Amino acid sequence: MQIKIAEEGTPLITGLTRMLEKDRCTLRWTWPTGVDAVYIRKVALDECEDSREDVNRLKLYTKAEYKANNGYVSRLESARIYRFTVYVLIETKEGSFLLEQPNRGNIIEISAGKAKIYYSVTEKGGLFRKHKSIGIEVNTEVALENDVLCYVKKSGSFPANRDDGVLYPFVVPFSAGKNILPPIEVGKSDYVRLFLTDGRTHGQLYELIAR
After folding, report:
1. What pLDDT does 132 receive?
2. Residue 203, C-beta contacts closer than 8 angstroms, at least 6 positions apart
3. Distance between CA atoms of 114 and 167, rounded to whole angstroms?
4. Which residues, including other chains, have CB under 8 Å from residue 48's CB and lie 6 or more apart?
5. pLDDT value for 55
6. Which of 83, 87, 153, 174 could form a disulfide with 144 if both were Cys (CB 3.0 to 4.6 A apart)?
7. Which pLDDT score is estimated for 211?
């Protein structure tokens, strides 16, 4: 099945929401006029990229099934983050296509329970040195994209939140399990703490715990 970018005027999935009851998740959305079927992709974010993009993960789901089930129902494993993508199916003279929405309104991420992320920050420095070395270790129950976490540096005391100092993003993703980051050189009076980059969004999926 081929995927094409949605253009202006093409039917789009809107109003995608989730309802979670223990390990049972129900997705609901607004069907575009004239669309009677969609394809749904469900992937766990801790799987490898090739597995996530496997076309065999696509499931055909009709509007009639949606009405009968009052949505789309799926079961989730705890401590895993899932991404659901609902693709509009369109028929053209060139064949059948699935629409990729640039606004990502057809994508939603869900967890059956917050995945725990443990982290520790250690310092090494000499008495007469102007700088010290910061070591960061992250131990996470699930794989994380690089934009889930950030670290904040503040002079004189530990930062209280992500806006209380200078924010730095991470440039590489985190694998499930232990991740030991390369040391960071900071000033002798600087302090570092980790935060969720987007507390409102990521806070629904992850619990960040300092050790």
Report:
1. 94
2. 196
3. 24
4. none
5. 60
6. 174
7. 92
Note the pTM of the prediction, 2 decimals: 0.60
Residue at 48: amino acid letter: C
Q: Where in the chain is the domain with CATH 2.60.40.10?
A: 2-111
**What is the structure's pLDDT at 198?**
92
Q: Which pLDDT belongs to residue 170?
A: 96
| 67: its two tokens | 């009405």
At CA 6, angle to CA 3 and CA 9, rounded to 5?
145
Spans in the chain with pLDDT lower than 50: none
Structurally, at CATH architecture level, domain 115-210 sits in: Sandwich (2.60)
Which pLDDT value is given to residue 39?
Answer: 96
Q: Residue 53: its pLDDT value, please?
A: 58
How far CA 80 is from CA of 50, 98, 177, 199, in Å, comes to 18, 26, 13, 18
- b/e map 9-45, b = 16+ CB within 10 Å: eeebbeebebeeeeeebebebebeeeeebbbbbbbeb
Contact call for residues 40 and 26 (beta carbons, < 8 A): no
Return the CATH fold of 2-111: Immunoglobulin-like (2.60.40)
110 vs 98: CA distance, rounded Å: 22
Q: Is residue 156 packed enough to be buried (19+ CB in 10 Å), middle (13-18) or exposed (0-12)? A: exposed
Phi, psi of 65 (to 5 degrees): -65, -40
- Please give the Cα distance from 79 to 100 (Å, whole number): 28
pLDDT of residue 44: 86
